[in-house]
Every structure is written in C-alpha cells, then in structure tokens.
Amino acid sequence: MCKTWGGRLLVVSSLIRRWYCFWSVQDEIAKQLATQIPWWHNVVILTKTKNTDEALFYVQKTILNNWSRSVLTHHIESDLFRREGKAITNFKATLPKPQSDLARETLKDPYNFDFLALTEEHNEKELEDALVNHVTHFLLELGAGFSYLGKQYKLEVSGDEFFIDLLFYHVKLHCYVVVEPKAVKFKPEFAGKLNFCVSAVDGILKSEQDNTTIGILICKSKNDMVVEYALKDVHKPIGVSEYIITKNLPDEFRSSLPSIEEIEAELSGVEESQ
To answer: Which intervals hold domain YhcG N-terminal (predicted)?
Structure first.
C-alpha cells in the first residue's frame, strides 16, 4: 500500500513540475487563470494540448462555461480550438459589434457529428432525423447557449406555410437561430432560401427584446469561394460550415437497418395480435 501511495505521489509531483514548466512561458495572468479550475481539469489540459495558446483557450472556456472534466475532454478531443469561429459568415456586414464577434465565435467549422450512426450516402431527412434523435449530443456540439425549439417548425406567411428544418434560441446572443443541415455540397441557392427563413422568423417570432435572427447552413462540403460570393449581397446574418462524420456505417447497413415506419408497423402488428 505504501508503494502504491508512493507511486501516486511521484506521479502527482511529476505533474506539478510539468504544470509549472508548461505555464512558465506565459505571463502571470495566464497562470492565475489556470489556478481557477480544478487540478484534474489542469491535468487533462496539460496532457492533451499541444501548446500554451491552446491550453489557455480551454482554461478560459472551462471558466466561462463551467465545463465538467468529461465535457472539457470531449471538446479537446474534438479539436474545438481549431474549429471555433472558423465558419464563413457575413456577420461583419449584417450585425453590429459586439454581436457580430460573439456570433462568429459561436459557430464552428467543421461540426463534428461522430455521434450519428449514418452511412456515407445518407440523405437530408436521415441527417435531420438523426440530429433530432441525438439532440443532447447535437446541443453539446453546437455549444453553450443553444436551446432547441423544434424540427420542421411551421411558419405561416399570408396563408402560405413554410417549414424551418431546425429552430433554436440562443440565450447568450438573445436571438433565434435557424439551422439548415444539408447532406450535399453547398449550393448558392441554399443561402437564398435561408435568407427568406431568417426574414420570416424576424417578422413573425422575433420580439422587440430579441436581437436579429441568425441562419446557419451546415453542409456536407463546400467551396469557400462559392460561399463567399453567395453571402456577399445577402442582407441577413448567415454562416456556412461543413460537418464531418469520421465513423460512417458501411453502406450495406442501410438495407439491414429497419426504418422508423417499419418499426412502427411491427409494433402495430404486435398490439393487434394482443
């Protein structure tokens, strides 16, 4: 037992020395920030980040969002440091400061959808359904502040009905957020449709206390220059990102996995037989 405790003390002592060496290249303020989070959070950051700039990013995020150790680990392993604020947007032209900066920092590129069990050839409905079925994971990936309001959210405009793929409210930005997932490469017409949806939400749902609605397109891939041109003359705030799924199911699984309709039919048959 003494040997066990002795070994643990050596490990902790070694980690403490590493911690001091690691932060010695930063100023005293950075070191003070690191002391504001729990020791084992520090250990996670110390052992999983590549440099002090990245480490300081996660220290500040942990303090700001009160992350648990598991949430911190998730964000480091999903490389949030290199994804946050990287989406292509027109926020500088369509939102006032500091809202434009805060909104830009809220978006990521790419979004990591590894929590979804989808084949490489999935379609838009499958993507949308999977995101809703795993909405807790989706909210974690979207980031702090997002509140889910609904899927295929109906808006009526002078008797015509329109449906928003996914509608959220961001409690920190104080605005509605329209999210449109696309299981294909970005097309310029996507921006036009989303611009309409954002305008409709502003006109129908937004109150005087709310800030301007934001639109987010999350596509399977994109040509950055095409996105830049598509957003250039769009007057509503829109951001465009890609998503990645590094653990796709093999395509042959598509035929072997039952659909929602097949499951419901099977359950209906069981109930009738009883």
So the answer is: 16-83
SS3 103: helix
Asked whether 176 and 201 are in contact (CB, 8 A), the reply is: yes
Interatomic CA distance for residues 134 and 248, integer angstroms: 16
Q: Which of helix, strand or coil describes residue 26? A: coil
The whole-number pLDDT of residue 261 equals 53
CA 191 to chain CA centroid, Å, is: 19
Chosen domain end from 50, 82, 114:
82
Is omega for the bond preceding 181 within 30 degrees of 0, making it cis?
no
Which tens digits make up the pLDDT trace of 206-223?
Answer: 999 999 999 999 999 999
- Please give the tally of structural domains in the chain: 2
- State the residue for tokens 């104080």: 174
Pairing of strands 146-157, 160-170: antiparallel
Amino acid (one-letter) located at 117: A
d(C-alpha 117, C-alpha 126), whole Å: 10
What separation in angstroms does the CA of 131 have from each of 13, 104, 137, 206, 244? 44, 22, 8, 25, 13
Is 68 in the same domain as 189?
no
User: Six-digit token pair at 4?
Assistant: 């066990």
Residue 61 falls inside a structural domain: yes
